[in-house]
Amino acid sequence: MCLLYIGAGINHFWHPAAYIRIMPAWVGHHEFMVLLSGVLEIVLGLLLLPLLSRRFAAWGIMVLLVCVFPANVQMMLNYAAEQHPQLWVTILRLPLQVLLLCWAYGFTRDPKPSAS
Fold it and tell me: In 10 A of CB 10, how many CB atoms?
């Protein structure tokens, strides 16, 4: 999971235009938001590493996933309007967000059950 978010965050800097294109119109400051989300993905991915704050990072990732969900919806709407042949991929991304949320949630639990 660490590598997934670190790689995705780096990609925001390599290909910012791809992310700017899928930003909903109602979200302001598209370039800044793309770079900010890239930084957050990198930082939160690093925090998932052992010995760092996994629980904090996992909660941060869940918040980030909820915040970027509108961009995934916008991407699907853009592809539908363009009759893009990869529309099906954008449709599959939406439920994938739920799986990513569940995966991140797994990192929020205490790894050692407390003895009561």
Answer: 14
Residue 50 CA from chain centroid, whole number: 20
Q: What pLDDT is stored for residue 15 in this prediction?
A: 95
Given a contact cutoff of 8 angstroms between Cβ atoms, the answer to whether 64 and 41 are in contact is: yes
Write the pLDDT tens digit of every residue in 2-57: 899 999 999 999 999 999 988 888 988 999 999 999 999 999 999 888 766 888 88
Does any domain span residue 114?
no
Please choose, from the candidates 30, 21, 14, 32, the residue with its C-alpha nearest in 3D space to the C-alpha of residue 74. Answer: 21
- Give me the domain span that covers residue 67: 2-106
- Alpha carbons 13 and 35: distance in angstroms, whole number: 7
Q: How many angstroms separate the CA atoms of 89 and 91, rounded?
A: 5
